[in-house]
Design goal:
With 216 residues, the protein is of the alpha/beta class. The protein has a single domain, classed as Rossmann fold, CATH 3.40.50. The chain is built from six helices and nine strands. The strands form two sheets. The protein has a seven-stranded mixed sheet, sandwiched between helices. Strands 8-9 form a two-stranded antiparallel sheet. Helix 1 packs parallel to helix 6 and helix 5 crosses helix 6. The longest helix has 24 residues. It is globular and about 55 Å long. Bound molecules: 5-O-phosphono-beta-D-ribofuranosylamine (GRF). The site of 5-O-phosphono-beta-D-ribofuranosylamine has 15 residues, from helix 1, strand 5 and helix 6.
Length: 216
Amino acid sequence: MSRVRTAVLISGRGSNLKALISACAKPQFSAELVLVISNQADAAGLRHARAAGIPARIIPHTEFNNRESFDAALNAALGDADVELVCLAGFMRILSEGFVLKWQGRMINIHPSLLPSFKGARVHERAIESGVRISGCTVHFVTPEMDSGPPIAQAAVPVHAGDTPETLAARVLEAEHRLYPLALRMIAEGRVRLENGRAVFSGYECADDVLISPRE
Ligand code: GRF
């Protein structure tokens, strides 16, 4: 079985990277991690790549004069490793339109809200302020407009009455670690693709449970 050559781009903690590493460690998993790139030399997540023996490259954005030249270095590194699919996992750089279009349909991101709600930053704080009773996370295809690409998979969690941004973030993060490997597998198995700006599915299994919050 040939496995889809996948890179993960990070900037920090790397807990989603760790979840993807565990998933790809299973012999029957349809994607393999061939490269991790961080724009931060001290990203804690780099240790997960090293522990798993996955090549890790540090490409500090501060060494480039503009976004385009940084993105060209990213693109070259991905090309050197024959990468077919890119997973953004807490990668804190806005990517240029040219780079995004080059990887369109082959680049996915995870965001800690049920998009299109709460795009951008301070997600959990804003979710709590808004009073929603359910939040969650989304894996989506990356398109030039931030956090706006078509969703591939979503997971929902309750927002508790006493939640702080930290407690809600921790609950959503657990869901992220389950969702990202599932979305990666769906793409790698060719069960979802980007077509005319929408995610198109084949071999899609619907979840059939209802999350009601608060409890009935
Ligand atoms: C996650 O919450 C992810 O949804 C967001 O950034 C965070 C990264 O966390 N895009 P980690 O580095 O994977 O632990």
